[in-house]
Specification:
Largest sheet: 7 strands, antiparallel
Shape: elongated
Oligomer: single chain
Strand content: 25-35%
Structural class: alpha+beta
Radius of gyration: 25 Å
Number of strands: 23
Distance between the termini: 31 Å
Strand order of the largest sheet: 2-3-4-5-6-7-10
Helix content: 10-25%
């Protein structure tokens, strides 16, 4: 399997909004907890005590808001601008309410000054999903409560920092437009960011933030300059917002539950995909018949199309999955390892994994729904799902890429050599194209996945991909454990 593209990686270049460069990434919450600087700041936020004078809100309401629990299923958003880095995470709602959601925002500047606040968004209607995997938000107002403010104390600022929301404005083909969108690669590629000032000059309390706070109103400024002066809430008075490049600016972007039907169970992910896409079932049922051909066979599905598509073939007979256009992601990829059996891998190859890692780096795999299917000339049939795209992508990250880690990179070279004979010479790797012990291949491949915590699940299937069994390597018994997907 090969991939080809000339697309630029938006997450490497950052996003230009006038003279302000904003970069955005999505990271699992548990990964943030492994960053010492963030962990220290988060601990301070959790220890914060409610202060009615700071917020203008009754103590009982504050205590309820301060006693928060993060939703670790939803990815956190990390924004970087002008030397600041902010982390925005979804707070679990104790009561299900489609018209409200809360975010914890933690920001750290270059001097390690920290600021933390909780924002409660109040909506006029439930978020509306657009055709570009983004959501329209009609925000009526926000309640902002400060947890930790080292900016005002340490830096001697005259006023509490202002909070700016980064959203996108972009019309969609379904006719929806004019609203604030949570940033996606589709929005960001157009450089139509809106930075909307919602709280300045007061104590950071709640209340209506004025016209700038309503993302629908701000969205009418499609030139990307959606800042405005609004009331601060909590008894504050309007004032001219400082430059977003100034020292007392907090940046954030709304983080919400984007798919109420989302399942984190990999078995359910496969069953849901096949039950909702009969075309995929038809294609997979024919895939086993294609392994005897002398070239690879493949099919794929992307978010922007309802049809199953066929990738091109290279001169060497491999399928070449194209990189989709910006904002479009893969939800399914299927291919064969073709005949002869003694010259093909019986499991996913190193090249297969590297190319999926490249797609994840470019934000071109919808890991919430993505399944990769494989049929081989050895008579083996597998499916693979990705539950932790950040970990998977980091394992394959190269020097200079945002999530590169030297220790992980060194381990990647050793593991590629040991199991696949890749990246450095090894004439006798554990997994080889001419292996005849297919169980040994399967066990070794599972060892590789689990030893490196790649955040994926592997399933074995029957010939027509109608049944699936989840596999796991058991280090105690040195065998492969299996569990049927019911």
């Amino acid at each position: 399997m090969l991939l080809a593209s000339c697309e630029k990686d938006l997450y490497e270049t950052g996003i230009q909004n006038g003279n302000r460069k904003i970069s955005l990434t999505s990271v699992p919450v548990h990964k943030l907890m492994q960053i010492p600087k963030f962990n220290t700041a988060y601990s301070k936020a959790k220890r914060a005590k409610p202060d009615p004078k700071l917020s203008g809100v009754k103590r009982t309401a504050l205590e309820e808001m301060y006693n928060f629990t993060l939703d670790t299923v939803v990815l956190a958003k990390v924004l970087e601008m002008s030397g600041k880095i902010s982390y925005t995470m979804l707070i679990k709602n104790e009561v299900i309410d489609p018209l409200t959601f809360k975010n914890l925002v933690i920001q750290i500047d270059e001097a390690n000054n920290m600021y933390a606040e909780i924002i409660k968004y109040n909506l006029s209607k439930a978020p509306v999903k657009t055709t570009q995997d983004s959501y329209l938000l009609d925000i009526v107002n926000k309640d902002i409560n400060v947890l930790v403010d080292e900016y005002t104390v340490t830096m001697g600022l005259a006023t509490t920092p202002c909070t700016y929301i980064v959203v996108c404005y972009q019309p969609y083909s379904d006719g929806s437009s004019g609203g604030g969108h949570t940033p996606t690669s589709a929005c960001l590629s157009e450089s139509n960011n809106l930075v909307i000032e919602i709280s300045c000059g007061g104590g950071g309390g709640g209340g209506d933030s004025g016209s700038g706070g309503d993302t629908s109103t701000g969205g009418n400024n499609s030139d990307g300059n959606g800042t405005s002066t609004g009331s601060t809430g909590g008894g504050g008075s309007p004032g001219t917002p400082p430059s977003p490049n100034g020292p007392n600016i907090i940046i954030t972007t709304p983080v919400l539950v984007t798919d109420p039907d989302l399942t984190t169970d990999p078995c359910e992910k496969i069953k849901k995909q096949l039950s909702e896409n009969p075309q995929i079932v038809d294609e997979l049922s024919n895939m086993a018949n294609k392994t005897s051909e002398n070239t690879e066979w493949g099919r794929y599905k992307i978010t922007s199309a309802n049809v199953i598509q066929t990738p091109a073939s290279t001169a060497s007979g491999q399928v070449s999955f194209p990189f989709p256009s910006v904002g479009v992601k893969y939800t399914m990829m299927a291919h064969t390892h073709n005949s002869p059996a003694e010259q093909t891998f019986s499991v996913f190859s190193w090249t297969d994994l590297v190319q999926m890692g490249e797609m994840i780096k470019n934000n071109q795999i919808d890991s919430n729904h993505f399944v990769a299917y494989l049929a081989t000339a050895d008579g083996t049939y597998f499916a693979l799902t990705i539950e932790d795209p950040y970990t998977f992508g980091q394992f394959f990250a190269l020097s200079g890429q945002p999530n590169f880690d030297m220790n992980i990179a060194e381990n990647r070279v050793n593991e590629a050599n040991k199991y696949f004979g890749e990246l450095s010479p090894n004439n006798d790797p554990i997994i080889k194209e001419n292996n005849t012990d297919l169980y040994a291949d399967k066990k070794a491949f599972l060892q590789f996945l689990q030893n490196n915590n790649l955040g994926v699940s592997l399933f074995e299937s029957n010939q027509n991909f109608s049944t699936f069994t989840k596999l796991a390597y058991n280090p105690t018994t040195n065998n492969v454990d299996s569990e049927n997907c019911q």
